[in-house]
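Example record

The entry below shows one chain as it appears in the dataset: sequence first, then structure tokens.
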Amino acid sequence: MRKTQTYLAEAFGTFALVGIGSFAILSASAGGAALGIVSIALGFGLALLVGLYAFGEVSGGHFNPAVSLGMFLDRRISMNDMFGYWIAQFAGAIVASLVVLIAFNDDAVAATTTHSSDNWAGIVVEVVMTALFLAVILQSTKSERVRGTALLAIPLTLLAIHVAIIPISGSSVNPARSLGPAIVGTDFGDIWIYLIFPPVGAILGWVIHKIVIEGDTSLRDDIEAARRGGGAPAG
């Protein structure tokens, strides 16, 4: 039952993130470009806050396959749990986009998909910003000094990332956030960027965390231990 609760929490949390964020995109379309970016960024940042407060205590509040990958590499969840998290996250994102479809139409869902204005620029910012996002998550959820602020630090980091890179890549840093609208809106134009490079950024963020924060350069040993199932139980 505990595993079921954990995966349901991930599904509902991802649903909140993608659903509220998608409606924020559509609501912002009536404003100017600058206002639109800020409104969308606030939508996703506050949506993550909603998900964390509602469901984070049960599952850890990943709501993002890239985050779950980072947590697996850091041996906080097992490989089996990581796959369970991914399935729940993608399911939550798809259902959120179906709600947008019911409320609006196919074109509206397609308008919530992520696209890059330039593929190389999009790849770079998705990798770099996901790495920064993971570095914040890994440290704020572990350090006694900042653990009390994690529920604010993580959503505010996502908000800042959206403000910075929406014009460049659409600001995904989350494969589930991009795949859900792409499937329901049948718009797969740049989806390969968002399925491949946020996970690359997650790996980079974990490497930075291990070397800079923990002073651990034995990354091969850490990866092998995680692969053997050295992760912690989910939640």
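Notes for this example: The CA atoms of residues 207 and 221 lie 13 Å apart. The chain has one domain: 2-227.
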